[in-house]
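Office hours follow-up: a student asked to see two folded examples consecutively, so here they are.
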Amino acid sequence: MKISVDISLYPLKEVYKEPIHAFIAALDAEEGVEVEPNRMSTHIHGEYSIIMKLLEREIYSVFKEIPDSAFVIKLIGHDREGAYAK
């Protein structure tokens, strides 16, 4: 089953851009997952099992490195890739 995810990372520290860029790069490096970053959040599209394992691994990594971080995540039960195009 293909899904879409809308995710935002908020590292609660002064230097916040680098962890966000690193998180997006880690998502984008995953084979079989489409990643669309934008100004407020990042959209991820792909197979449910791949995305959920990816999110579990990468969110854990962020919390380990920066415990004072917050994520906002929306899960959509089908692939909305391209639905946000202008």
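And the second, which I mentioned at the end of office hours:
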Amino acid sequence: MTDFETRTLSVNGVRSPVLIGGTGITGEAVVFVHGNPDAARDWQPLMEPVAEFAAVFAPDMPGFGGADKRSDQDYTLASYGAHLGGVIGQLAIERVHLVGHDFGGPFALTWAAANPHQVASVTLINSGVLLDYKWHRLARVWRTPVAGELFMRTTTPRLARFVVRHDNPGLPEHWVDVIAGHLVDAGTKRAVLRLYRSTRPQDMGALVEPLRDRDPDTLVVFGDADVYIPVEQAERQRRVFPRAHVERLPGVGHWAWLEQPDRVADVVVPFLRARVGQAV
């Protein structure tokens, strides 16, 4: 098993623990970006095989995991993209292979659209630039003033576990407990409400042109039983990344790499291995 260490970085006064592992060419790394409500360590089952041939990094993004969750922070896509850029800069990564899940895709791609020359490849797991997207039922509640606050106030560990298990029947019990645990953190609850309410369709639309112009090597892995992001979004990524390879996983849910770690690694690891160290 690969050894990992954690280093805490501060970007504009917001601290993020960063999970670090692997080895590889100086200035090149695979950067794993989690979404809602996850944390960096949730990536470890996929980071471990990638760390055998590459440097790997995964930050806790603001409002999640061990990162700062203050009420005066900015929880917009632009802010998350800037924060990720600060982490990448402090780690001196010049050539970046992005891996994003859920909101981690938009976080990462917001940075990528502003820094296309640094993007070596993109891997999206049940994520992407969500075009013509309709919010799922929980998101609609979170985006509604008063109703969202009431839902968060009444989300106990028991309720959180019920929701995660109901929506993700294929997820192992350990990961149901982990994700439910993330959901009940008070600071994360506040971050989720502000992130979902600040995100607009035009924020996604603004990413299309700069990313399509860059058209990096892109892999889209999508569990087609996702109840939060419909599988139609997998094919829509070709509007943004014309050369994208799309791999659909029948019967797999939102957290595909936790539900079917070997199956996802069999797709993601060869894709990254073929591109890490590749001449630009």
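Two things to take away from it. The CA atoms of residues 152 and 186 lie 8 Å apart. The radius of gyration is 17 Å.
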